[in-house]
Amino acid sequence: MNRRNIIKRLMAAAFLAGSFSLPAFAAVEVAGVKFDDTINVSGKELKLNGAGLRTKVIFKVYAAGLYLTEKKTSVPDVLATQGPRRVSITMLREVSSEEFGKAFLEGLNNNTDKNERSKIAPQTMKFGEVFAQIQTLKKGDQMLLDWTPGEGTQCSLNGKKIGELMPDMAFYNAVLRIWLGDHPVDSSLKPALLGEK
């Protein structure tokens, strides 16, 4: 065996050895934003169900990831999931809190009926106050919307809790339907969050 073949075999062996040491599931990347495959919320491990891009016209607005205790591919299954949940949003451009809040309410209204909206109205108003505390969402800002059973919905921005806990699970499910409802804010983001892409 000549020297060149020996070097080729050694390199192939080194490559194979290196590839076995890689983690089984690498983080998912969306528009430069990395979403860890697993995270911890309230002492429970959550898995990345799916992640995708929210665009408006031609602009990239944010990257979003949905975390659940186990992967689900249908909206009813996601909404019925027990245990903690998280929606992670990383801004890809600057948006005023007024604009973000308006889009949030529009998405909520488009995916809930009048009866449901009246039931969650107090929590929706409290959530609206969250946006009043923030003037602008800047590129790179990370907003987390966590659901913890027995506690409620907690919003945080760049690691700092903002707003009050909202105890009703119906509110969190209404928020999820902004992206997963019959009239999602972005038709390509819905299948991405459901892990179809």
Spell out the key features of this protein.
197 residues; Chalcone isomerase; seven-stranded antiparallel beta sheet; two-stranded antiparallel ribbon; 6 helices; globular
Task: Describe this protein's structure.
This protein is an alpha+beta fold and 197 residues long. Helix content is 38%, strand content 32%. The protein contains six helices and eleven strands. It has a seven-stranded antiparallel β-sheet. Strands 1-2 form a two-stranded antiparallel sheet. The protein starts with a helix and ends with a helix. Mean pLDDT is 87; it is low at 10-25. Keywords: Isomerase, Signal. It comes from Duganella violaceipulchra. Residues 1-26 form the signal peptide.
What's the SSE blueprint?
Layout (H helix, E strand, L loop, with lengths): L2 H18 L7 E3 L2 E3 L2 E4 L2 E13 L2 E10 L6 H6 L4 E7 L3 E2 H14 L3 H20 L2 E2 L4 E7 L3 E6 L2 E7 L2 H12 L8 H5 L4
Antiparallel strand pairs: 1-2, 3-4, 4-5, 5-6, 6-9, 7-8, 9-10, 10-11
Helix pairs in contact: 3-4, 3-5
Quick structural summary:
By secondary structure, the protein is α+β, with helices and mostly antiparallel strands. The protein has one domain: 3-Layer(bba) Sandwich (Chalcone isomerase). It has helices at residues 3-20, 75-80, 97-110, 114-133, 169-180, 189-193; strands at 28-30, 33-35, 38-41, 44-56, 59-68, 85-91, 95-96, 136-137, 142-148, 152-157, 160-166.
